[in-house]
Amino acid sequence: MVVRAVRIALVFGAILAAINHGDRLLLGDIDINAMLKILLTFCVPYSVSTYSSVLAIRENSITQKLE
Hints:
Blueprint: H1 2-27, H2 32-66
Helix pairs in contact: 1-2
């Protein structure tokens, strides 16, 4: 689950970082504040992927118990 979430975070985090900070990245205008925001951008898809996986596992576990 963690490996899959990291892969998803790398792909979609890069896309989100390019959309949100692409102009600054192209200009090389990156300070520590911008770098922290870019790093946090990668946390969003990681968190969503992990949360979704946990919910699916829990739902599957409950369904199997009912059968």
